[in-house]
Specification:
- The protein is 0% helix and 48% strand.
- The strands form two sheets. A four-stranded antiparallel β-sheet has the order 1-2-3-4, with no helix packed on it.
- The protein starts with 12 loop residues before the first strand and ends with a strand.
- By secondary structure, the chain is mainly beta.
- It contains no helices and seven strands.
Length: 86
């Protein structure tokens, strides 16, 4: 059954990525955030990155298990931003 997720801290979602371990990441274009949602898409687990981390107008999100990094595509300066997951 489909689920609908809403959160006031997620504005204008642009991209969703599901990792091999079923972690769901969503980027918010206007909210300048990357959040993690539970595997059922019902609740927010964490804010993974925000403007204070350099996230500005994200349009894509990807998790690389080989480098243990989150890679973001940013619209504001046609750049990519990477974060090491600890």
């Amino acid at each position: 059954m489909p689920s609908t997720f809403t959160d006031p801290q997620l504005k204008s979602p642009r991209s969703v990525h599901v990792t091999p371990s079923v972690q769901v990441m969503v980027c918010g274009y206007i909210s300048n955030t990357i959040i993690q949602v539970d595997s059922e898409g019902k609740k927010k687990l964490a804010i993974l990155a925000s403007m204070k981390d350099g996230v500005h107008t994200p349009v894509s999100v990807f998790y690389s298990s080989s480098t243990n990094s989150i890679i973001l595509g940013l619209d504001n300066n046609n750049a990519m931003l990477g974060f090491k997951v600890i």
